[in-house]
Design a protein that fits this description.
mainly beta; 8-stranded antiparallel β-sheet; 1 helix; flat
């Protein structure tokens, strides 16, 4: 409960008085009458980042990062390209910033094109 209150306080401090989309700037987790807007960061129960990306009228758009945690300091970041047609996996990185997999669209399907042999 404390976590939700803290997040709400942080979000309220970023909302400009007029609330217009052009004035939102670097604000995070904005919601108005059209739904979620702009940059969003979502966290798990342990306070670790779970997802980050952009919304436009409640829809995920552009590039989104999804974090998957395995152990204390080990995680993978999944990069997706989101559009009105859904989301497509673009690449997967490990927590030290090394690219593990890359995907490309071939014949209208996302296919693994590059794999780096990394120990997970």
């Amino acid at each position: 409960m404390k976590f939700k209150i803290i997040i709400l306080c942080i979000v309220l401090n970023y909302i400009p008085k007029s609330g217009s989309a052009q004035e939102l700037g670097d604000a995070v987790n904005i919601e108005n009458e059209f739904g979620r807007q702009g940059k969003w960061k979502l966290y798990d129960r342990k306070g670790r980042i779970k997802q980050e990306g952009n919304y436009l009228n409640r829809r995920k758009i552009k590039e989104w990062k999804f974090y998957k945690y395995k152990r204390k300091n080990r995680y993978k970041i999944y990069f997706y390209e989101c559009s009105s047609e859904g989301k497509e996996l673009k690449s997967i990185y490990v927590n030290d910033g090394t690219c593990a997999y890359k995907y490309e669209k071939i014949n209208d399907k996302m296919q693994l094109t590059t794999h780096y042999n990394l120990a997970w």
